[in-house]
């Protein structure tokens, strides 16, 4: 049973079919304007742009296609550096629980003389909006806060943070890799300037994503390109557009919007069964249930190590003990450590994540295997 959907999710059948059609039956570069093949590709890309924008109530021309949320995060953060240097605003506020795709670009800017403030979460994995507000300075260029944490599923208070920024000019970036298309309302807040999107987290194809650059008034965030060559995507992201992947992302975004209620219902049902089966093990869940994505649960069992759990479940369930981006060189979770959890809880943490496409899970069997390790 595949229970690692936060790492990468299964593809929706309708998405698979659309990608296959554009790989096998269609041909054309969306930048070619001299023949019908190119025009059809251009129209397909434009439709996908509208579909991606609609999820966050943005305009189609505010969407730039990228290879995924990691590239989008880099473009949003590094792309604002020149503006920060020109305006003498070299301070950035972020959080200690961000994905490495945010933390490492911030480290790169810090090496160039920028000042970085990382706000720590509370014990539920949520970063208080008041702490973000307290960290603001007159020279703050950017506030970057993830939508939902990839390890714990903890949803961050984006609306409260947006309110805290009401009187400040700092740009507000949200890494929405985990929450886009799932937790809809927060990303429609017009105070959010930049939104990073990942295709394979919303049941779309790998290798495609987007960055939404929402206008404030009539001005787009002053992001500069970090790659060059070709001028595609309004000069912000060069390279021939992968039409099949873009079409797939568009279909995935439209499906996420249309089927949101049904998907939430199914994921909540799976979560109820998971909690009921695991509760007799005296599990410690590492996020507040009322502010956690419905399809993920990060927990530890007293006296049980996460590596032992994964070995015990190897033949029946695919689970993880942290972020996929760091699993090849495993270190204790920086997210759980930032939450102030004791070392035993950090080393024992297991993440299970499912989707609306997940069949019924024999949670009791998983619980029994884990219980056998005590």
Architecture blueprint of SSEs:
Elements: H1 13-24, H2 36-55, E1 63-66, H3 69-78, H4 81-87, E2 91-95, H5 100-111, E3 115-119, H6 129-135, E4 140-144, H7 158-164, E5 171-175, E6 194-198, E7 209-213, H8 243-258, H9 260-278, E8 284-285, E9 296-300, H10 306-312, H11 334-338, H12 343-347, E10 350-353, H13 363-371
Parallel strand pairs: 2-3, 2-4, 4-5, 5-6
Antiparallel strand pairs: 1-7, 6-7, 8-9, 9-10
Helix pairs in contact: 1-8, 2-8, 3-5, 6-7, 9-13
Mean pLDDT figure: 95
- Overall geometry comes to globular
Helical residues, percent: 25-40%
What characterizes the major β-sheet? 7 strands, mixed
The number of distinct helices, counting runs of at least 4 residues, comes to: 13
CATH class call of the largest domain: Alpha Beta
The rounded distance between the terminal residues' Cα atoms is 23 Å
Biggest β-sheet: strands ordered side by side in the sheet: 1-7-6-5-4-2-3
Chain oligomer state: single chain
Q: What is the number of beta strands? A: 10
Radius of gyration: 21 Å
């Amino acid at each position: 049973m595949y229970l690692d959907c936060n790492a990468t999710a299964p593809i929706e059948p309708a998405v698979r079919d659309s990608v296959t059609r554009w790989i096998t039956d269609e041909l054309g570069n969306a930048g070619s304007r001299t023949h019908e093949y190119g025009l059809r590709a251009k129209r397909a890309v434009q439709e996908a742009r509208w579909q991606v924008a609609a999820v966050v109530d943005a305009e189609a021309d505010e969407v730039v296609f990228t290879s995924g949320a990691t590239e989008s995060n880099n473009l949003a953060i590094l792309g604002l550096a020149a503006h920060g240097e020109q305006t003498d605003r070299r301070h950035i506020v972020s959080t200690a629980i961000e994905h490495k795709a945010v933390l490492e670009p911030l480290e790169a800017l810090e090496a160039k003389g920028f000042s970085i403030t990382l706000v720590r979460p509370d014990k539920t994995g949520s970063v208080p909006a008041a702490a973000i507000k307290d960290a603001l300075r007159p020279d703050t260029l950017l506030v970057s806060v993830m939508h939902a944490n990839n390890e714990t599923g903890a949803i961050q208070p984006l609306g409260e943070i947006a309110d805290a920024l009401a009187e400040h000019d700092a740009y507000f970036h949200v890494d929405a890799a985990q929450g886009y298309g799932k937790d809809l309302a927060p990303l429609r807040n017009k105070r959010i300037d930049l939104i990073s999107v990942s295709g394979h987290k919303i049941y779309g194809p790998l290798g495609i994503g987007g960055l939404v650059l929402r206008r404030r008034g009539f001005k787009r965030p002053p992001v500069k390109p970090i790659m060059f060559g070709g001028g595609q995507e309004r000069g912000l992201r060069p390279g021939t557009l992968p039409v099949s992947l873009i079409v797939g992302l568009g279909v995935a975004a439209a499906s996420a919007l249309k089927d949101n209620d049904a998907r939430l219902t199914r994921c909540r049902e799976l979560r109820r069964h998971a909690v009921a089966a695991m509760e007799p093990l005296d599990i410690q869940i590492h996020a507040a249930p009322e502010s956690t994505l419905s399809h993920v649960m990060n927990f530890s069992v007293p006296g049980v190590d996460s590596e032992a759990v994964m070995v015990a479940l190897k033949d029946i369930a695919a689970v993880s003990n942290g972020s996929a981006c760091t699993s090849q060189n495993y270190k204790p979770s920086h997210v759980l450590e930032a939450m102030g959890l004791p070392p035993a809880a950090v080393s024992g943490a297991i993440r299970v994540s499912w989707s609306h496409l997940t069949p019924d899970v024999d949670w009791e069997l998983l619980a029994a295997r884990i219980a056998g390790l005590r």
